[in-house]
Amino acid sequence: MTAQLINGKLISAQIKEEAAKEAVQIKEQGVTPCLAVVLVGNDSASKVYVRNKKQACEAVGIRSVSYELDGETTEEELLGLVAQLNDDEGVHGILVQMPLPKQINEEKIILAIDAKKDVDCFHPMNVGLLHTGGKGFLPCTPAGIIELIQRSGHTIQGKNCVVIGRSNIVGKPVAMLLMRENGTVTVCHSKTRNLAEVCKRADIIVSATGKMHTVTADMVQAGAVVIDVGMNRNEAGKLCGDVDFEQVKEVAGAITPVPGGVGPMTIAMLMKNCLVAAKMQNHLM
């Protein structure tokens, strides 16, 4: 039996619809949620991401302001813009698109963004709140993964969950969120021994390695939920994930495609974070 296809486009559309209703309620209380997006340089992938974020804001009813800076912009100039946006009460979320040009220290920029406006959830204060179970923003891609699992009818509580990859952007935070939902979590990485055996015991597998065919059919137990965060191109230049999709879908109980799985969820969850930011800053929650 072929696995249930978890449709990220459909689920992200549901979340955006909910966000649009919430944006109307916030506006009725005299606040227009606003996201500032900063792009430095001409990275083509970054330009696409920024355009998609602006379109999502428009669809949901969030005001967006964008700053497209020259690739030669200095760290000092960017820090100045961030300080200006921090002080602007009409801006609730600040997103500086990564990667930044080599003359700019990314960590310094992340630290400079007011934690209350850090809708990407990269600031150490927000990362700390995630780890201690405090209230605040949730990192967009990991939070989107949890929504994909739950909204497609699967429970996390009591399940054996394996996360492959330990990055600060996906691996570590998704492990924390799975634990928050009472999953029993194992984090695997390039130094893990017997990866296939560990995965074979999992009810839920999240792969975020950025390497094709990290997860093959012989690593997946029958009926497991497989979430593919990878974004790679195969020899033919076709977009694919970490999971050997054609083979694994014949074993798994549910699986996300690439594209159309995790990808659309990231921007949907960013919209939710923008609304949380607007409410927190205006004491509406």
Can you tell me about this structure?
- By secondary structure, this protein is α/β, with parallel strands linked by helices.
- The chain has two domains: 30-114, Leucine Dehydrogenase, chain A, domain 1 (Rossmann fold, 3-Layer(aba) Sandwich), CATH 3.40.50; 140-264, 3-Layer(aba) Sandwich (Rossmann fold), CATH 3.40.50.
- The protein has helices at residues 8-28, 44-60, 75-87, 106-112, 124-132, 140-151, 171-180, 195-200, 245-248, 263-281, and strands at residues 4-5, 34-40, 63-69, 93-96, 160-164, 184-188, 204-207, 225-228, 232-233, 239-240, 254-255.
- The longest helix has 21 residues, at 8-28.
Q: Percent range for helical residues?
A: 40-55%
Q: Mind telling me which CATH architecture of the largest domain this is?
A: 3-Layer(aba) Sandwich
CATH class of the largest domain: Alpha Beta
Using the CA coordinates, give the radius of gyration.
19 Å
Reading the helices and strands in chain order gives: EHEHEHEHHHEHEHEEEEHEH
Task: State the secondary-structure class.
Answer: alpha/beta
CATH topology of the largest domain: Rossmann fold
Number of helices: 10
- Annotation, overall tally of beta strands: 11
Number of domains: 2
Low-confidence stretches: none
Within the largest sheet, what's the order of strands? 1-11-8-7-5-6
Q: Give the distance, in angstroms, between the N- and C-terminal Cα atoms.
A: 45 Å
Binned strand content: 15-25%
Give average pLDDT, whole number.
96
CATH homologous superfamily caption of the largest domain: NAD(P)-binding Rossmann-like Domain
Shape: globular
Largest pleated sheet: 6 strands, parallel
